[in-house]
């Protein structure tokens, strides 16, 4: 049985990592249309072209939209192109995030500003634009899912800029759940732990740190993008039709591992 049959799904940051894994899983679960955003540089452009080809070979109509998610116009264009192609948006996965690891005392103010603009402002922009669409479409409603992080609960010496944006994203989705429930719009957050993606590839090259993070988990391994895609699809599906305002931790047990 497919979990998201016929749904139109919008995913930001879809060229790689968690976004890409979500696109593939939604295709497997019966989504009929995918609206995929990517940054638009040389690398992500090649990645998204390959993904689009693979998805369309599987029979899933796919549109791709480039742009810097930190700019409001990017979110407006994502929604405009998506609705023009498919007529509606049923699911949003707000996934774009950056974490340029930096010591707090020497962090350039530009690092703080860019991290906030991409992670928090970008999430706010796309959530708002998609929510406006979900409120006016017929039938009304949909599922908003933001990729937050357990870093919004926990501290990291080089994440004094990143953690606050993720805490804010979790809270944003709680407030959106309250504001949008009357329109049939559900809003939830996924809080990954350490997932092996490009965001932490350089950081995890430190063998000692990698082993430490693995040992922090209860399942004895780092997460993969596919480990996040499953919970995302669940929250998008009708199986989660009574779930809104939730913050789902998907971290292999890091958060509860006090010892």
TrEMBL record:
Keyword Oxidoreductase: yes
Species this chain originates from: Gymnopilus dilepis
Family affiliation: Belongs to the short-chain dehydrogenases/reductases (SDR) family.
PANTHER family named in the record: (3R)-3-HYDROXYACYL-COA DEHYDROGENASE, SHORT-CHAIN DEHYDROGENASES/REDUCTASES FAMILY MEMBER
Protein name stated in the entry: Uncharacterized protein
Keyword list, A-Z: NADP, Oxidoreductase, Rhamnose metabolism
InterPro entries attached to this UniProt entry: NAD(P)-bd_dom_sf, SDR_fam
GO MF entry, a single one: quinone binding
Record-linked Gene3D superfamilies: NAD(P)-binding Rossmann-like Domain
GO biological process, one term: rhamnose catabolic process
Domain of life, source organism: Eukaryota
């Amino acid at each position: 049985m497919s979990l998201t049959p016929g749904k139109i799904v919008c995913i930001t940051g879809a060229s790689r990592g968690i976004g890409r894994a979500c696109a593939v899983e939604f295709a497997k679960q019966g989504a009929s249309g995918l609206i995929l955003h990517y940054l638009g540089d040389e690398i992500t452009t090649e990645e998204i072209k390959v993904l689009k080809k693979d998805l369309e070979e599987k029979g899933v109509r796919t549109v791709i939209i480039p742009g810097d998610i930190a700019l409001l116009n990017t979110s407006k264009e994502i929604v405009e192109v998506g609705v023009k192609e498919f007529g509606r948006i049923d699911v949003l996965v707000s996934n774009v995030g950056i974490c340029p690891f930096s010591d707090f005392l020497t962090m350039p103010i530009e690092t703080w500003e860019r991290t906030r603009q991409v992670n928090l402002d970008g999430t706010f922009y796309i959530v708002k634009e998609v929510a406006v669409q979900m409120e006016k479409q017929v039938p009304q409603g949909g599922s908003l899912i933001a990729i937050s992080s357990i870093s919004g609960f926990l501290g990291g010496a080089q994440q004094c800029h990143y953690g606050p944006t993720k805490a804010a994203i979790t809270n944003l989705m709680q407030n959106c759940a309250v504001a949008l429930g009357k329109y049939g719009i559900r809003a939830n957050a996924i809080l990954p732990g350490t997932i092996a993606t490009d965001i932490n590839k350089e950081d995890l090259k430190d063998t000692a740190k990698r082993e430490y993070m693995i040992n922090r988990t209860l399942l004895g391994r780092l997460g993969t993008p596919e480990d996040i895609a499953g919970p995302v699809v669940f929250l998008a599906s009708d199986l989660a039709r009574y779930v809104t305002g939730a913050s789902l931790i998907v971290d292999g047990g890091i958060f509860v591992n006090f010892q």
